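Predict the 3D structure for this chain.
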Amino acid sequence: MDLQFRRAFRQLARSLRQTGELLRQRWPQRRDIVTIFFRWLFLRGTFNRGYVLTSGLYFVVGAHLSASQIVFLGTVISTTLVLTDIPTGVWADALGRKRPLVIGHLLLGASMVMTGLVTAFPLLVVTQILWGLGWAFIIGADVAWITDELAQHQRIARVLTAGARWGLVGGVTGIGAFGILGWATSLATSIMVSGVGMALLGLFVAMQFPERAFMPPREKRWHASLSVIRIVISLVRRDHEILLVCVATVLINAASMAESLFPRQLILLGFPSDPVPWYTAVGICFTAVGVIALYLVQARIDGVGLARRMYMLACFIGGLGLLILAEAPNALIGSAGVLLVSGITINVTRIVGAIWVNKRTSSSVRATVHSFLDLAEAIGQICGGFTLVVIAGAAGMLMTLLTAAVLMAFTGTMVALARDRASPGSR
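Done. Predicted structure below.
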């Protein structure tokens, strides 16, 4: 009897080992999932920041757009996001996260390549519509994908913060590489190369991103989509923390629309006649500052109430940066203001807001809730864009930057006065 028991035990142990080996072969380790996610964010940051740098200069020195036209392009992107954020988020929650990510990369690549081919303002408007549509497909689906596939909710805040840091490291790489390419060849060439890279990154997602944790709803797709929307609306109405983040996102992004004026302001403050290498250096510096800021955030983000305090501090830092840029006597001091706004405020508020909301959201509606947050961002950019266009046309650059500074300080004050509430049982 004892011999039979030992044989049965050995057979059971052998079966368990074989099952474990089979699972390890078919299912990537969670660590591998995180590695793939970080590599993707690094490459996405490389192509995205390379495009943002070169296109920002291209709009000024290549297409010769006015300040109001530059701000209007940002408003076009935001309008596109308002119209498409929720449908793409519902798609990711009802039908899957991977396919929207691939489609988004292809749209971004097409937009970037087309930007480098045209200079007429109406055609540039078309490129920015495609740009906004591409991001609508990606935003929300990316956080939902890694949260579901990792399946370790105690780690996800640190993973998202570290991922944002990897994106900024990629951004430094992209700013340096595409800034040098734009200086050595032309801004248009650099823009188009970054677009081709972004489109190819969509193929990386298609081949490397598994999607095994996502479970599509059993009900009909149309009914599932309506159910997702109803749950999200109810969640936002009941959860005052999510509502606070959404309102703060509207305000901070209204103020951040002044960022599109930074290249023009620095040129007016005395950038050299060839601004490409100098603005590339500024871009590398503010991205490096963002990496350091997110490293500090990552080490502390799990503390009780720290998300609110970090958000508040970042808003006040942004207000200070805009004041410095508005009152700077030269381009060097103005660049310090850019470092504070673009390096700290925009990076920290975006990732802290996403983590804050992600902790309070269930898997079934996660992508849609993040799309709802992005919708708040787009609404803020539209309102801020139109407001800053009017102010820039009527009162000039200085008053535009000062208005944005006051709005950032107000947002920080609003967040500071809010009270922390317990999460309503997200999973």
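Confidence is low (pLDDT under 50) at residues 22-29, 422-427.
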